[in-house]
Amino acid sequence: MKFLVTGVNHKTAPVELREQLAIPGERLEQATRSLLAIPGVVEAMVVSTCNRVELVAAYEESVPDMAAFFDAHFAVARAELRPHLYQHQDAEAVRHLFRVAASLDSMVVGEPQILGQVKASYTVARGVGAVGTQLEQLLQSAFSAAKKVRAETRIGSSSVSIASVAVDLARKIFGSLEGRRVLLVGAGKMGELAARHLLGQGAGSILVTNRTEERAVSLARAFGGRVLPFAELKTRAGEADIVITSTGASGFLFAREDGQMLLQRRRGRPMFFIDIAVPRDVDPEMNRVEGVFLYDIDDLQSVSTSNMANRGREATSAERIIGEEVERFVRRSLSLDVVPALLSLQQNVESMRQAELHRAQNRLQGMTPEQVAAVEALTRGLASKFLHLPLRALRQAARQGDAARVEILRETFQLEQGSAASVDEVSPAAEDTAAVEAEETEPVSSGKPA
Fold first, then answer.
1. Residue 203, φ and ψ in degrees, nearest 5
2. Does pLDDT of 126 surpass 70?
């Protein structure tokens, strides 16, 4: 089991940096192929959301230079990026990915969107042939762990998505959304979630705009709203009291001067922008315009924090479940990984036994068939006795998830590494068989002379 997770998230990097590292959906396939091309990486997946950009990889012997991916693909100075990067290896990488899938590492703990985003990244990676046996097992186990958390805790019952936090902020600003007009810029999933929450809070009317008008029409129809042509965005955005942006635009849709113009048309009435896009849709300089109030995705952290106390107990239960699932996965993976070592040890001992018999062949030529059979049984018994303890030690280490002890035994006996069937399927020289064979051959080894 050799896994790496390298990246940045909302805990380690500000939105100003994250937006420079964001990978749009249309570039995810190419990014995954590029990650797979890094020396040592054998399987790969890229997770890019508004709160994180993470590289997930299965690797071979040496640890790949995953940070090189960021150097090659983004115009961010190494000295600026490195302090914000984190890297989790092997069991810690497994734990991190399980926590991400279960929404325990999200800005809003318990939000349901991240699991779908990880699954979407997995689908892209599979589509380009970047997912093999190792990542398949890891991701399916992560999805199962997330499902178990949802089923056995109430962490999602009081959770809120980033979109709902944005709407909650708008409600707190106005006191009530009754009669307020809202403009949704972007008709993706986040915009749809925002629309649902806005209507639930009693918003008076909704305007929807999107570069692809069909998407805007579909969303507006679903919620009884109206479409604002995207070409008229800057001139008509002032019709709304609240503007929620969630597009995939690479540059600002609203600059500081746009805010000044909109305030003039609104005759000084205040206007609120909630920018939940990464990269951001609204120039942060907009905050300098008197009468315009701008909140970006990092600002939403303070809103979500106030809800953490209500979810603390459920989060604790969820962490326990994740811990158990990670331990189960690590034990199973190590059990699979140790099988080639078990087989290698058996083969090495059998090769030595055969070599010694061949070397003594001239001295054994005068023996009867019965005596030859007795020598064969004697050497097999000695080999079985020798194998008994190291085989048992390897099995126990694998079952206990003790990777360090497995590695020591591998190095001691110079054994092979790899993946195969379960450790319990190794035969015929399993520890219990070895013990039985040793007992059966003892009378031969102390019997009649050859």
1. -55, 140
2. yes
Burial category of 85 from C-beta neighbours within 10 Å (exposed 0-12, middle 13-18, buried 19 and up): middle
The amino acid that residue 205 corresponds to is S
Q: Which of 36, 47, 50, 130 is catalytic?
A: 50
Neighbours of 329 (CB within 10 A): 23
What the block records as the tokens of 196 is 């649902």
- pLDDT in the model for residue 443: 33
3-9 vs 181-185, strand pairing mode: unpaired
425 given a catalytic annotation? no
Longest CA–CA span in the chain (Å) reads 115
Q: Which two tokens stand for residue 322?
A: 């994740």
Residue 322 to residues 105, 315, 317, 397, Cα–Cα distance (Å): 12, 10, 9, 22
Collapse the DSSP code of 162 into the 3-class scheme (helix H, G, I; strand E, B; otherwise coil) and give the result.
Answer: helix
**Alpha helix ranges (H) inside 102-188:** 113-127, 133-152, 162-174
In the sheet that holds 3-9, the strands lie side by side as 41-48, 52-59, 3-9, 86-89
Decide which of 58 and 219 is more confident. Answer: 58
Q: What is the CA radius of gyration of the chain?
A: 31
What average pLDDT does range 180-206 have in this prediction? 82
Of 30-39, 65-74, 158-167, 341-350, the least confident: 158-167
This model's pTM is above 0.85: no
Sign of the torsion angle spanned by Cα atoms 58, 61, 67, 70 = negative
- Per DSSP, the residues of 375-430 read HHHHHHHHHHHHHHHHHHHHHHHHHTT-HHHHHHHHHHHT------S-GGG--SS-
